[in-house]
């Protein structure tokens, strides 16, 4: 049976009026009709085409949609959209087959619109809409393909200078070559490959989610809906729209036109094949992702998976290749205040290619340079005498800015918070040193934990001395391992410049530190172009990476860990005083910028020294800060004021707890300041330390 061109029923009626002599006139076909008029396909080919037109990496957003709908609403929406779209596709197929039998074969959506609405409406209403959709799909596909090519390029050559537009041109040329295929039917092998890849990356994502969910340290799960009732309603509509658009719009008339006669039954079997793949991929990814991450599921589930060290790196790489996503490698590290607690061996273990050491001390820089030269390190190195919290690095180093993949500050960050200007200068210098996409990480005293200990000390003091003057506050925290003394006896402290002395047992000298106000830290970092990733207490860090750290800590003596590799209470107490932090300088050419979580809406009166307003909005009380997959592939041992080396992880993704104010009878306004330094990790989760 040959292929018939579209013929309207009106032509047959006119022949009848002319005496019954029927002469079929074949109208001139345009290029679009010729493209689909190679009717040699089977129902399998039809299934390949339909699956490719519907199943795409957009399905990786389904766990995020479920997080806005919950288990019941999400599963019902998935099922309902699947049933409705399957029914509509099948009904449309039956209608097209019916018209083909009657001699009016409709090859495209535009032909259908012309047949139903007439030539004018079909051409000038439906045509432009369809053209706009196709144009947007082509442009976005080429742009995404260019971004993926740049990922692969950066993986093989992290110092490459090619720009995104060059990769877009390259990918566009590839699409231009593929566009030369003579007919839709010729795409069957490419669409089979697409179907296979969709199954592959869906299987990888599902397996990764299940592995994390059943691990010893699974992500915290919370299946409640976020926000107020109004926000929940808006989120529900958003979730339904995500699910609805994920089912996409299969170009069914064009696909059905590729089937060889007889068409009857073939389209239904092709739809069954397509929806078998849809059920396997959509439901497995959506359910496993939401089960593992709950309402912390991100826009794409890969963002949640990136950063969990329990998953082997090759597994994530393969998954990313299937979805055409890659990450950049570390080649250079900038170490701020490098002479304080110098430990050059950590950079050998990190296998970096270039090291930039910056410190304010002339003697310290000289010692670091001598150590590097004498030990003949495998990496190249540069050293600069600059105070990062005082001087402008851009004017001092000039062409050396934006050269580091990672900037770390393992010591002295807390003293940069002596004034707001010093902290702002430090963070602007960090941003100037970092390449787009790079990370700023380090270690600093955990001010939230220290303040919580201070409050507990005050509570005990008030319970013990109810008859004494309430404005006299003890300023000293003591334990068997250390003593913390605040310089001024006061109930409140400013955001910057609150100093205290930290003295460890058997150490004749005391160290001077400043409390780091974490919301101000995050605010100033955002002003400098750095987005918050996480703040994690060292006790949590040890628990997450116990397998890697236990052997190393055993080498420092028997008074740190118990025989089962757990921290002794004394070690737990000391490590609880410190926290790690990670920020990222977003690269807009590769990934959308990571958004810093909402901070409390507060005001601070420096004269009266009191907090005003509602510290945390109601909806923020129930929401944990978003954790973003970010990789910090520099496994470096970090010196702390005890003989313990704490490495920065290959990748860290830990939820940051929301600090809930603690009500302590008799403390007055001081109890309202529980969490004044949050959103750090101090919600009194350290019973051994307190």
CATH class of the largest domain: Alpha Beta
Point out poorly predicted stretches.
1-27, 309-330, 591-690
- Amount of beta strand: 5-15%
Number of strands: 17
Number of domains: 2
Going by CATH, the architecture of the largest domain would be 3-Layer(aba) Sandwich
CATH topology of the largest domain: Rossmann fold
Quick take:
The N terminus and C terminus are likely disordered. Helix 8 packs antiparallel against helix 13 and helix 17 packs across helix 19. The chain has about 700 residues and is of the alpha/beta class.
Helix/strand layout:
Elements: H1 9-17, H2 31-36, H3 43-54, H4 62-101, H5 109-117, H6 119-156, H7 164-178, H8 188-213, H9 229-246, H10 252-256, H11 266-293, H12 301-305, H13 313-322, E1 332-336, H14 345-350, E2 354-359, H15 362-375, E3 380-385, H16 393-397, E4 404-409, H17 420-433, E5 434-445, H18 447-464, E6 476-478, E7 482-486, E8 499-504, E9 511-514, H19 518-527, E10 531-537, H20 538-544, H21 546-554, H22 569-575, E11 578-584, E12 603-605, E13 610-612, H23 618-621, E14 630-631, E15 637-639, E16 645-647, E17 651-652
Parallel strand pairs: 1-2, 1-4, 2-3, 4-5
Antiparallel strand pairs: 5-11, 6-7, 7-8, 8-9, 10-11, 12-13, 14-17, 15-16
Transmembrane segments: 48-69, 75-100, 121-144, 164-181, 193-214, 272-293, 313-338
Keywords: Amino-acid transport, Membrane, Methyltransferase, mRNA capping, mRNA processing, Nucleus, RNA-binding, S-adenosyl-L-methionine, Transferase, Transmembrane, Transmembrane helix, Transport
GO cellular component, one term: nucleus
């Amino acid at each position: 049976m040959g292929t018939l061109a579209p013929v309207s029923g009106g032509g047959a009626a006119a022949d009848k009026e002319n005496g019954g002599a029927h002469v079929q006139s074949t109208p001139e076909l345009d290029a679009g009709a010729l493209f689909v008029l190679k009717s040699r396909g089977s129902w399998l080919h039809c299934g390949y085409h339909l699956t490719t037109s519907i199943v795409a990496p957009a399905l990786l957003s389904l766990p995020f949609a479920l997080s806005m709908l919950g288990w019941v609403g999400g599963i019902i929406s998935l099922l309902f959209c699947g049933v409705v779209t399957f029914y509509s596709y099948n009904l449309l197929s039956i209608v097209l087959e019916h018209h083909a039998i009657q001699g009016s074969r409709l090859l495209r959506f535009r032909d259908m619109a012309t047949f139903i609405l007439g030539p004018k409406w079909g051409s000038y209403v439906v045509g432009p809409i369809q053209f706009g959709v196709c144009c947007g799909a082509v442009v976005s596909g080429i742009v995404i393909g260019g971004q993926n090519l740049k990922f692969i390029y950066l993986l093989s050559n992290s110092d490459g200078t090619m720009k995104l537009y060059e990769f877009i041109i390259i990918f566009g040329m590839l699409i231009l070559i593929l566009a030369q295929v003579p007919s839709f039917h010729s795409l069957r092998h490419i669409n089979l490959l697409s179907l296979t890849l969709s199954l592959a990356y869906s299987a990888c994502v599902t397996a990764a989610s299940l592995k994390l969910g059943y691990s010893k340290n699974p992500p915290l799960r919370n299946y409640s809906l976020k926000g107020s009732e109004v926000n929940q309603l808006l989120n529900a509509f958003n979730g339904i729209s995500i699910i609805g658009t994920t089912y996409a719009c299969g170009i069914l008339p064009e696909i059905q036109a590729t089937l060889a006669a007889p068409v009857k039954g073939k389209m239904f079997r092709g739809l069954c094949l397509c929806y078998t793949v849809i059920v396997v991929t959509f439901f497995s990814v959506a359910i496993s992702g939401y089960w593992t991450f709950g309402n912390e599921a991100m826009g794409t589930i890969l963002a949640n998976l990136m950063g969990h060290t329990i998953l082997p790196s090759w597994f994530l790489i393969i998954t990313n290749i299937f979805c055409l996503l890659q990450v950049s490698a570390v080649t250079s590290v900038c170490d701020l205040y490098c002479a304080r607690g110098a430990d050059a061996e950590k950079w050998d273990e990190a296998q970096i290619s270039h090291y930039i050491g910056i410190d304010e001390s002339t003697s310290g820089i000289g010692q670091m340079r001598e150590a590097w030269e004498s030990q003949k390190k495998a990496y190249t190195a540069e050293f600069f005498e600059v105070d990062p919290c005082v001087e402008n690095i851009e004017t001092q180093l000039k062409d050396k800015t934006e050269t580091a993949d990672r900037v770390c500050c393992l010591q002295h960050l807390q003293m940069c918070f002596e004034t707001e200007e010093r902290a702002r200068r430090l963070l602007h210098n960090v941003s100037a040193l970092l390449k787009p996409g790079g990370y700023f990480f380090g270690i600093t005293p955990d001010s939230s934990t220290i303040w919580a200990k201070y409050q507990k000390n005050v509570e005990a003091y008030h319970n013990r001395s109810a008859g004494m003057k309430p404005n006299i506050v003890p300023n000293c925290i003591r334990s068997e391992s250390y003593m913390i003394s605040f310089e001024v006896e006061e109930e409140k402290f400013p955001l910057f410049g609150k100093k205290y002395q930290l003295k460890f047992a058997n150490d004749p000298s005391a160290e001077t530190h400043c409390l780091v106000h974490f919301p101000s830290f995050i605010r100033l970092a955002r002003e400098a172009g750095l987005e918050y990733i996480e703040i994690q207490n060292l006790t949590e860090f040890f628990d997450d990476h116990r397998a890697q750290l236990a052997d190393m800590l055993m080498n420092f003596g028997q008074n740190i860990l118990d025989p089962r590799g757990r921290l002794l209470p004394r070690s737990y107490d000391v490590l609880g005083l410190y926290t790690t932090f990670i920020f990222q300088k977003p690269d807009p050419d590769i990934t959308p910028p990571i958004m810093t979580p909402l901070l409390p809406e507060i005001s601070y009166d420096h004269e009266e020294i009191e907090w005003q307003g509602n510290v945390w909005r109601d909806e923020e009380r129930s929401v944990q800060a978003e954790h973003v997959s970010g990789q910090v592939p520099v496994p470096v041992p970090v010196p702390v004021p005890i003989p313990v080396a704490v490495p920065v992880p290959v990748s860290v993704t830990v939820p940051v707890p929301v600090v809930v104010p603690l009500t302590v009878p008799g403390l007055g306004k001081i109890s309202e300041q529980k969490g004044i330094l949050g959103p750090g990790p101090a919600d009194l989760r350290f019973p051994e330390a307190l």
